[in-house]
Amino acid sequence: EPLIGVLALQGDVREHIALLERAGARAVPVRRPAELAGVDGLVLPGGESTTMSRLLETFELLEPVRERIAGGMPAYGSCAGMILLARQVLDGRPDQRQLDGLDVVVRRNAFGRQVDSFEADLDFAGLDGGPVHAVFIRAPWVEKAADGVEILAHTAAAGDQAARIVAIRQGPVLATAFHPELTGDERVHRLFVKMVHETK
Ligand code: GLN
Where are the membrane-spanning stretches (predicted)? Predict the structure, then answer.
């Protein structure tokens, strides 16, 4: 049975561990390179991407995580995790570092110009059981995605707000701008556990 790590430098780590376990995986917090080396997949939680970027450097995990991802380790990022996984971030801090797991450009705090947080029911490609109730908290959106990036969900257009890409997958890397770990809907985590099984 694969072991899934949750990057535990900052953010909503416990919620991810609980949902991964409900989704049938073994899950452990990851704070050191040796712990990273023992996992088959990694979740990057919601929180604050600029802080996590800084802590990744302090804990000497930035390069090891980048290398594992470049080597094909499955990864799933929610919100701040999506920002970290992207190749490029708009409206980030100048010293914010990227993990390059997704060939996308994300805009940080993108919805925040209209509203800090909101909830929406989204159709999510490939998930059975109806729409996903998505909680967005100072969330990013995907502004540009390369060919080969699958769009799994977007928000509905409303008024002068266009539809925005908020869930994607590129090979073994999955990301959502929202937080399934906060609503207890385990379907996104089940999808990720399946991706880890398929890679192992
Ligand atoms: N705005 C945060 C960031 O820039 C993300 C917020 C979240 O993870 N809920 O990382």
Answer: none
Q: Is 47 in the pocket of ligand 1 (CB under 6 A)?
A: yes
Q: What is the ipTM of this complex?
A: 0.96
| Three-state secondary-structure class, residue 41 | strand
Backbone angles phi, psi at 94, to 5 degrees: -60, -30
Class of domain 3-199: alpha beta
Q: Answer yes or no: is 168 a known binding residue.
A: no
pTM passes above 0.90: yes
Instruction: Give CA 103 to chain center in angstroms.
Output: 14
Kindly report, residue by residue over 31-88, the tens digit of the pLDDT. Answer: 999 999 999 999 999 999 999 999 999 999 999 999 999 999 999 999 999 999 999 9
For residue 7 and ligand 1, the question of a CB distance below 6 A is answered with no
Is 108 annotated as ligand-binding?
yes
Distance 16 CA to ligand 1 centre (A): 16
Closest CA to 185 of 138, 108, 127: 127
Domain ranges of the chain: 3-199
Range 180-186 average pLDDT: 94
